[in-house]
């Protein structure tokens, strides 16, 4: 029987993103397991990234552990986020998480929404 190849991580975090997630978790007044990342329909380009506090992982969440923090991926978002790197940037007047997503095909002018083509399922599922 051939050994199955390991599944790729759905998402990775830069050092800055991991530190910011760590800070959010540490400063929370209630215990958090991590952040939940997903996508939803909306905005002028069609989709928006979502982030929420996660007290615990959902039964079907994909759990990504990277650089000492946990991020829970909404199962409906896995194929949209496959291969994404999450970063945290500080600019003159703002700080924000940025998703460097190879599946993103375009973004609206204001930067609030994106168009994403989901990855092919076979790029995520282990080979048999």
Q: Care to describe what's here?
A:
- It is built from two helices and nine strands.
- It has 128 residues and is mainly beta.
- Strands 3-2-5-4 form a four-stranded mixed beta sheet. A three-stranded mixed beta sheet has the order 1-6-7.
- The longest helix is centred in the first third of the chain and has 13 residues, at 15-27.
- The relative contact order is 0.25.
Q: Looking across the biggest beta sheet, what order are the strands in?
A: 3-2-5-4
* Count of discrete alpha- or pi-helical segments spanning 4 or more residues: 2
Our measurement of the CA-to-CA distance between the termini, rounded to an integer number of angstroms, reads 9 Å
Average pLDDT? 85
Show unreliable segments: none
Helix and strand content put the structural class at mainly beta
Shape assignment: globular
The description of the largest β-sheet is: 4 strands, mixed
Task: Give the ordered list of helices and strands.
Answer: EHEEEEHEEEE
- The count of strands amounts to 9
Share of β-strand residues: 35-45%
Output the radius of gyration. Answer: 15 Å
Helix content: 10-25%
Note the topology.
Blueprint: E1 11-13, H1 15-27, E2 34-42, E3 46-54, E4 62-66, E5 69-73, H2 78-81, E6 84-90, E7 95-100, E8 104-107, E9 114-116
Parallel strand pairs: 1-6, 2-5
Antiparallel strand pairs: 2-3, 4-5, 6-7, 8-9
Short structural summary:
By secondary structure, the protein is mostly beta strands.
